[in-house]
Write a structure and sequence with these properties.
The protein has 319 residues and is of the alpha/beta class. It is 28% helix and 27% strand. The chain binds NADP nicotinamide-adenine-dinucleotide phosphate (NAP). It holds the Pfam family ADH_zinc_N_2. This is NAD(P)-dependent alcohol dehydrogenase.
Length: 319
């Protein structure tokens, strides 16, 4: 099969299209004929090996050689003990543990997959698993009427979270670069902030701050919160992560706020509810652009340069 592979950390230049053996599903696994896969910041991080936590399991060289965690496609074969799916089923899921979506076939644990709602295209379905699980879990931390700020709101997870948060009756402030602010308003954000022009830790206070790209100090985050407010890091630098896990707990305890890290639960139970909303037309899966498999490096560059509004999709084959 054709696959986009890499064997050292670096820029998209280290990726190459190759013919590699088609993987074989083991017990509990499914072989998926990939139709579409979407790009997540986690792909960019695993490509570069940065932040440091992206090297867990592969300190000097990558453990997995084919990136791509969000997949949508058809079941091509099932391994022993798989009862939930049959050959030909249309499925989608976040294959974050195994990766392999930038290829014609990928093996995934059956537990990571769900049947694709027929109202969704494969491209739409591929945008939902990872971003959707993050967005649903982040928004669930807020209550109607609260002021929620989303940092990194114009990307994959953020675009879903803005829509879900406004539907849930939160007052939403979206932070991203200037070129994404009209997009955030169109998604329903009540306020928008250009992160290059304004410091959101001085514009609040907010009841809930969710940071998809955290890099600030614990004290800056504390400043952004109202009494009783919560700060949650979803992604960002290793330094921000370590500070939050240590000093964050202490600062939260003495200032009657909570500062911590959101560990995103994976699996169909955590993304399928969003797929139903998208299928019903209540939430939009915003696809910025679609690239063919051989242009995965260009797709990653486009995503990494910060021009993408919502999700970038890789169409691996005709649906
Ligand atoms: N905690 C967990 O268990 C878990 C699990 C899976 C994924 N994650 C993390 O969740 C995050 C999901 O991100 P995603 O896929 O939605 O990313 P994305 O699509 O790349 O979106 C990130 C957005 O943040 C913007 N941005 C970059 N730097 C910024 C800054 N300093 N201030 C404000 N905005 C900034 C980007 O725009 P520009 O770059 O163009 O400016 C982009 O619009 C990732 O960090 C991933 O590692 C966490």
């Amino acid at each position: 099969m054709r696959a986009v592979v890499y064997d050292r950390y670096g820029s998209p230049d280290v990726l190459r299209l190759e013919d590699v053996p088609t993987p074989v599903p083991a017990r509990g696994e499914v072989l998926v004929e990939v139709v579409a896969t979407s790009i997540n910041l986690s792909d960019w991080e695993a490509l570069h090996g940065s932040p440091g936590y992206a090297r867990f399991g592969g300190l000097f060289t990558p453990r997995r050689h084919i990136l791509g965690s969000d997949i949508a496609g058809r079941v091509a074969a099932t391994g022993p003990e798989v009862t939930a799916f049959s050959v030909g089923d249309e499925v989608f899921g976040d294959n974050l543990q195994r990766l392999g979506g930038f290829a014609e076939y990928a093996v995934a644990p059956a537990s990571a997959l769900a049947l694709k709602p027929s109202a969704l295209t494969f491209a739409e379905a591929s945008t939902i698993p990872q971003s959707g699980a993050i967005a649903l879990q982040a928004v669930a931390r807020g209550k109607a009427g609260e002021r929620m700020l989303l940092n990194g709101a114009g990307g994959g997870a953020g675009a879903f979270a803005v829509q879900l948060a406004t539907r849930a009756g939160l007052h939403v402030t979206g932070v991203d670069n200037a070129a994404k602010l009209d997009f955030l308003r169109a998604l329903g954000a009540d306020e928008v902030i250009d992160y290059r022009a304004q410091d959101f830790t001085r514009t609040g206070p907010y009841d809930l701050v969710v940071d998809l790209v955290a890099s600030r100090s614990v004290f800056a985050y504390r400043r952004s919160l109202a009494p009783g407010g919560r700060f949650l890091m979803v992604g960002g630098t290793l330094r921000a992560l370590l500070r939050l896990l240590t000093l964050g707990t202490l600062v939260g305890a003495v200032s009657r706020t909570r500062l911590g890290v959101m560990v995103v639960r994976e699996g169909p139970a955590h993304f399928a509810p969003l797929a139903e909303l998208v299928a019903a037309g209540e939430v939009r899966a915003h696809i910025d652009s679609v690239f063919p498999l051989e242009e995965v490096p260009a797709a990653l560059v486009h995503h990494g340069e910060g021009r993408a509004l919502g999700k970038v999709v890789v169409a691996v084959r005709e649906s």
